[in-house]
Amino acid sequence: MSKKIGFIGLGIMGNPMTKNLLKAGFEVSVFDLNEEAISRLVDQGAKKKNVADMAKEMDVIITMLPAAAHVRETMVKKEGIFAHARKGLIVIDMSSIGPKDAIELAQQAKEYGVEMLDAPVSGGEPKAIDGTLSIMVGGEEDTFEKSLEVFKGVGKDVVLVGGHGSGVTAKLANQIIVNLNIAAVSEALVLAAKAGIDIEKMYQAIRGGLAGSTILDAKVPLILDRNFKPGGTIAINMKDITNVMETAHDLDVPLPMSSQLLEIFHSLKADGKVMNDHGGIVQYYEKIANT
Ligand code: NAD
Q1: Cα separation of 241 and 247, whole Å?
Q2: Is the domain of 258 the same as that of 218?
Q3: Which ipTM did the prediction report?
Q4: Do 56 and 134 share a domain, yes or no?
């Protein structure tokens, strides 16, 4: 029997993920604070349902919300998931939050008889649309096994990396790699451009060499087009790198490069660019090099 899925948070990521679950044949109910986001998916065959009714009726609820405060509110408020959960409900939080929040929510969930997984994703909007997201999961193996068919509806590589909090910690590590890569690409582009190099030609010359990467191929064409439409906003990546630094400080792990990145994000925010795609990191380098 196909599972009934509730999906909460129908933005850049949640909208295409819900479409793929519908395509995979699941019965999907949806909720968002934005009515337009709900209507778009009701037009595609989803049902509109409030959070409490989802908790009573669904087999699995997925949350794909901006940050920990939104996830916490959806789980613990009076009309939230935990207070109305039917026995055996599985809640999969696919938002990118910090490990302390993920562990605390999983412990609370248990008290209500809810099985919880933290399962953030990587791949951005293009892979959310293709249904090929990379998914890093934290939680219990039994819950993971029961959820695999749902994960396969939205993702390609789905890996249980450890217990509660491990999925979001792996995602924080992923975000260091992604954002520092964009910063490295930006430094290189601004240097070459100021030296008078044709960036399009340089990109074609280097992309098959050791500097070639998913980030180079994803971001350079957009930077060349001056297209900073998100994608993943600087705001959302700044939230992740803030969580990276908090987690690193808790573990006494110095992260000199990530702390620089956070300063770059603050500068872009002060410059009114926080809702640009994180490919817009290049605009910081352009500004300080006066190009
Ligand atoms: P988004 O801002 O586009 O969408 C978030 C949605 O949540 C919005 O539609 C908003 O109305 C809704 N929402 C907010 N609070 C709510 C609440 N209390 N109840 C119901 N709905 C609520 O964000 P996004 O880009 O889709 O990102 C969602 C999550 O996915 C974030 O945690 C982000 O870090 C992560 N993520 C994003 C990307 C990306 O490229 N955009 C990639 C990987 C992971």
Answers
A1: 10
A2: yes
A3: 0.99
A4: yes
Q: How confident is the model at residue 36 (pLDDT cuts 50, 70, 90)?
A: very high
Q: Which of 18, 17, 84, 19 is nearest to 57 (CA)?
A: 84
CA angle (170 as vertex; 280, 66 as ends), nearest 5: 55
Give yes or no: residues 115 and 132 share one domain: yes
The pLDDT score that the predictor gives to residue 203 is 98
Q: Choosing from 171, 219, 239, 273, which is the catalytic residue?
A: 171
Same domain, yes or no: 255 and 135:
no
124 lines ligand 1 (CB under 6 A): yes
Domain of residue 121, CATH code: 3.40.50.720
Give the structural domain span for 183. 169-288
The strand pairing partners of 61, in sequence order, are 6, 91
110 catalytic residue (yes or no) = no
Mutate to test the pocket of ligand 1, among 32, 135, 222 (most ligand atoms within 8 A of CB): 32
| pLDDT at residue 2 in the model | 72
**Whole-number average pLDDT of the chain:** 97
Assess contact for 112 and 83: CB atoms under 8 A. Answer: yes
CATH of the domain at 208: 1.10.1040.10
Question: Residues with Cβ < 8 Å from 237, sequence gap 6 or more?
Answer: 175, 178, 179, 265, 278
Q: Which two tokens stand for residue 189?
A: 């582009």
Q: Is the same domain home to 279 and 158?
A: no
Interacting residues of 46 by C-beta distance below 8 A, sequence separation 6+: 7, 18, 22, 28, 29, 30
Q: Which of 112, 124, 80 is nearest to 237 (CA)?
A: 124
Q: What is the average pLDDT across 5-21?
A: 98
pLDDT grade for 27, boundaries at 50, 70 and 90 = very high
Once rounded to an integer, what is the mean pLDDT over residues 118-129?
96
**Residues 31, 143 within the same domain:** yes
Mutate to test the pocket of ligand 1, among 65, 77, 234, 277 (most ligand atoms within 8 A of CB): 65
